[in-house]
Amino acid sequence: MADLIVHSTVKEQLADQNVSSDFYGALDDEVSELLADAAQRADENDRKTVQARDL
Predict the structure, then answer these.
(1) Rounded to whole angstroms, how far apart are CA atoms 55 and 41?
(2) Integer angstrom CA distances of residue 20 from 12, 14, 15, 23, 24
């Protein structure tokens, strides 16, 4: 599976914080789950287009 997040962007957003190396993997897992849930909602509503309301 490809990384869904960009480490440098996360680090930039959290500029005032230190970021542990395991944070990126955990965040990537959360994003992956969020996307899967949104895709499932779209499927359940007979849509192929994932929309903001699916989040």
Answers:
(1) 8
(2) 14, 11, 13, 5, 8
Position 3 pLDDT exceeds 70 = yes
Domain spans, the chain: 7-54
16, two tokens:
């005032």
pLDDT at 33 over 90: yes
Q: Is 32 helix (H, G, I), strand (E, B) or coil?
A: helix
Q: What is the mean pLDDT of the chain?
A: 94
Tokens of 5: 């997040």
Question: What torsion do the CA atoms of 35, 29, 8, 18 make, to the nearest 10 degrees?
Answer: 130
Residue type, position 31, single letter: V
